[in-house]
Write a sequence for this structure.
């Protein structure tokens, strides 16, 4: 279904009552219901507001709800932070993104199928990974910053019958201990850009971009800044709400505000002209994160034809067109930057177009929908729902 129609349909049939969005099944029957524990706001806002979202989760929710509706299910939607919702229906399945399965399981029918929608690494891995980065920073620069991407402990995987995982094997493998069937789903993208084949790669070969949200240390911005500060002939544009992390912005004041080859752009609209200008003037994306599900900004970069330098923990497999960092050490990052910048124009063009093609072939709304629908169909078949 076209996304315009999804929104219109959802707004027409949805009503919000005590934090719940209820969407009636398309066939009019009311004997099959599913509960989606993720986010409710995409069902209650106009499309123009939805398009401003920097995240993919609103679109994921709309797609999942519509997939269930097409299969004759009515759908109740709650926010994953809702800790007071009490089920009043005999749900055939529940899909939860965070930690509601443990609380809801005793309140659900015994035959209700519980699905964990995994969007990141296991909480124990992520928390340890971020703290390790902070410890390295403290040792390297004598700076002690607060963690910003710590997750609340959750037993969701233990309560799930099935799980889906965004990204490559990285996040999936952190849950493998539970022995649950986990199906990988490619992250969708809400943007598209023209082919990068006409870029002047000789002119832009030393220009790179970092794009990210909150958690600068977690996402490796400190490493990128320190590398480019030592490489004055290379340029870095920093796109993200960095100034909001006041301690980080203060400690990295010199790199962010006083280093000529580093430009702090700040939060940016990836659909806007400013971002289009930045990507047209850049050859690559650098994102040495320590833990993700599948990084939306990296997928955006691929759609923009940027050659990626990323860690395996970004959740995106980028070889052979990009560089996968093994240790995310600064010498390794510096080497990767120089390697990309030194490639012949023909090779840069080839890699950029390959990245762009990969994104279009693997990370669109249509592919997300097809993959997730196949997963739901398999669950329905196996459980005779």
């Amino acid at each position: 279904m076209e996304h315009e129609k999804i929104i219109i349909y959802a707004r027409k049939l949805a009503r919000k009552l005590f934090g719940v969005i209820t969407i009636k099944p398309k066939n009019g029957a009311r004997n099959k219901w599913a509960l989606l524990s993720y986010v409710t706001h995409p069902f209650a806002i106009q499309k123009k507001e939805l398009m401003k979202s920097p995240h993919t989760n609103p679109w994921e929710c709309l797609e999942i709800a519509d997939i269930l509706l097409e299969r004759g299910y009515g759908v109740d939607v709650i926010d994953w932070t809702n800790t007071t919702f009490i089920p009043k229906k005999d749900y055939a399945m529940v899909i939860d993104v965070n930690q509601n399965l443990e609380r809801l399981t005793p309140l659900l029918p015994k035959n209700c199928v519980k699905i964990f929608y995994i969007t990141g690494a296991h909480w124990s891995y992520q928390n340890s990974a971020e703290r390790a980065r902070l410890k390295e920073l403290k040792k390297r620069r004598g700076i002690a910053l607060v963690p910003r991407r710590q997750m609340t402990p959750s037993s969701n995987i233990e309560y799930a019958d099935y799980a889906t995982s965004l990204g490559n094997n990285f996040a999936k493998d952190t849950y493998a201990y539970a022995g649950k069937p986990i199906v990988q789903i490619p992250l969708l993208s809400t943007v598209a850009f023209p082919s990068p084949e006409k870029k002047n790669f000789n002119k832009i070969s030393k220009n790179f971009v970092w794009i990210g949200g909150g958690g600068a240390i977690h996402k490796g911005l400190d490493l990128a800044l320190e590398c480019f500060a030592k490489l004055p002939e290379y340029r870095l544009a920093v796109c993200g709400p960095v100034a909001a992390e006041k301690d980080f912005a203060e400690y990295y004041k010199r790199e962010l505000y006083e280093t000529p080859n580093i430009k702090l752009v700040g939060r940016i609209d990836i659909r806007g002209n400013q971002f289009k200008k930045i990507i047209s003037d850049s050859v690559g994306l650098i994102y040495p994160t320590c833990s993700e599900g599948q990084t939306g900004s990296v997928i955006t970069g691929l759609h923009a034809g940027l050659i990626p330098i990323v860690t395996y923990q970004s959740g995106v497999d980028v070889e052979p067109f990009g560089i996968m960092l093994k240790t995310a050490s600064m010498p390794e990052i510096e080497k990767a930057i120089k390697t990309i910048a030194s490639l012949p124009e023909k090779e840069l063009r080839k890699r950029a177009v390959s990245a762009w093609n990969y994104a279009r072939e693997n990370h669109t709304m249509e592919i997300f929908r097809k993959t997730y629908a196949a997963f739901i169909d398999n669950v329905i078949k196996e459980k005779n729902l």
